[in-house]
Design goal:
Elements: E1 6-10, E2 22-29, H1 32-44, E3 49-52, E4 58-59, E5 64-71, E6 76-82, E7 85-91, H2 96-105, E8 130-131, E9 134-135, E10 140-147, E11 153-156, H3 158-161, H4 169-172, E12 177-186, H5 199-205, H6 213-227, E13 235-239, E14 245-247, H7 248-257, E15 263-266, E16 270-273, H8 275-281, E17 288-289, E18 292-294, E19 301-304, H9 310-328, E20 337-338
Parallel strand pairs: 2-5, 3-5, 4-20
Antiparallel strand pairs: 1-2, 6-7, 7-12, 8-9, 10-11, 10-12, 13-19, 14-16, 15-16, 17-18, 18-19
The structure holds flavin-adenine dinucleotide (FAD) and NADP nicotinamide-adenine-dinucleotide phosphate (NAP).
């Protein structure tokens, strides 16, 4: 059965910034057939299509004069053992965090550091989601994506996804690939990644020296709940800027001027700077312009205090970029997808 299209549908509840814009049409698709039907009908009417997952990495700056296709396919399964790993698969519309918890409940390890990231499984490869020292590329086994140019389904291996820091081949060609389902190679034994931020410390505070995947997931959830605003309470899209990677010389020059610089070497020639630290040093933490603001606890997160528009948040982001450029000579790149 073809799903009904809503006309002039509000997207306020469908993006975590809570931006109140309308889609010309909105439809939910919960199967490959439903997705194909919606794409075909949009093509017939010459309508552009915006693919939507959980709306947690989007900044909507205007009404969407397109068909918004919300991916709502569900299903997750264990496919079997391959080379000491267990391959699991989930449909694109599966919510990410419940999928992580499900994998842990199967006795499988590898996704625990990626707990409590909002959004869907299908969007996760778009920017190679990462947190606390793990990215999906570390446990990625493959994905199936619909080529919107040809209508064919193509399988992607790890190499073909060209995953990089918050980047992938899918992000590089926006709108071409619609990810249908994703596979991960997990392990029955835990290889804990505890050296990032306060993860080990939180486990020790809980009296845990040899954690399970569940204990790591719980610790990370508790850290995230303390530090990051809950989009249900305060609209946001997580980190608004990527951490800039600069040359070792540039980082050294900045360290001389700012001895407290937070920086992490990425091999011999490059250094990753904590964008949140730069923004906080520049005095933006807690700043507010109407309802568009910078979070009180984490300067990397822009927030909607209520009725900010996407354009106001975008304007604030550009002011921050210009200030960081002027003060530090560093370019900040926005992370959320702008519409
Ligand atoms: P959406 O916002 O709906 O879409 C994002 C982009 O992907 C859009 O361009 C959309 O068109 C496209 N897209 C969506 N689904 C598909 C599909 N099936 N096929 C093809 N294209 C698709 N990110 C991290 O990496 N690490 C974090 O730790 C993290 N923490 C966050 C914390 C908070 C509080 C918030 C609000 C966000 C956080 N994010 C984080 C960002 C975000 O949650 C992730 O990028 C997430 O993967 C986005 O999923 P989504 O389903 O909401 O995507
Ligand atoms: P944090 O722990 O305060 O650390 C600040 C920054 O320093 C992070 O962005 C992280 O970079 C980097 N960092 C910390 N420890 C590091 C180490 N040992 N080696 C290399 N880099 C290190 O960060 P936070 O804001 O609370 O976030 C915690 C984790 O969740 C981070 O990995 C962050 O990326 C992720 N997160 C992402 C989003 C998003 O929307 N993308 C939102 C919230 C949290 P990286 O960001 O490169 O990891």
């Amino acid at each position: 059965m073809t799903a009904a299209w809503q006309e002039q549908a509000s997207l306020k509840a469908l993006n975590t910034f809570g931006i109140d814009v309308a889609a010309r049409y909105l439809v939910r698709a919960s199967s490959d057939d439903g997705i194909r039907q919606a794409l075909a009908a949009a093509a017939q009417r010459d309508l552009p299509v915006l693919v939507l997952g959980g709306g947690s990495n989007l900044l909507l700056t205007r009404d969407v004069d397109a068909l918004v296709l919300q991916i709502a396919s569900r299903g997750r399964r264990v496919l079997g053992d391959v080379d000491q790993r267990v391959v699991v698969e989930a449909e694109a519309g599966e919510p990410w965090h419940p999928f992580v918890l499900w994998s842990i409940a199967q006795g499988l390890c590898g996704l625990e550091n990626l707990s409590l990231i909002p959004g869907t499984v299908g969007a996760a490869p778009m920017q190679n989601i990462g947190a606390y020292g793990v990215e999906i590329k570390d446990v990625f086994a493959g994905l199936s994506a619909l080529d919107r140019q040809t209508g064919e389904v193509r399988e992607f291996s790890l190499e073909e996804c060209a995953f990089a820091y918050r980047d992938s081949v899918f992000k590089a060609s926006p709108g071409r690939w619609l990810i249908l389902r994703v596979r991960f190679a997990l392990s029955r034994t835990l290889d804990p990644h505890l050296d990032y931020g306060p993860v080990r410390q939180r486990l020790l505070e809980r009296g845990i020296q040899q954690p399970t995947a569940q204990a790591i997931s719980d610790a990370i959830c508790s850290i995230r709940r303390e530090k990051l605003p809950d989009p249900a309470v305060l609209g946001n899209a997580g980190s608004f800027f990527k951490n800039p990677v600069v040359s070792a010389e540039c980082a050294e020059r900045l360290r001389v001027a700012y001895p407290g610089l937070v920086a992490y070497p990425q091999g011999p020639a490059e250094v990753k700077l904590a964008a949140g630290w730069l923004i906080e040093q520049a005095g933006w933490k807690g700043y507010r312009e109407g309802d568009a603001g910078v979070h009180q606890q984490q300067a990397l997160v822009l927030v909607n205090h209520g009725h900010a528009t996407g354009a106001q948040l975008h304007a604030l982001a550009r002011k921050i970029q210009a200030d960081i450029r002027a003060r530090f000579g560093v370019e900040l790149e926005m992370e959320p997808n702008l519409y």
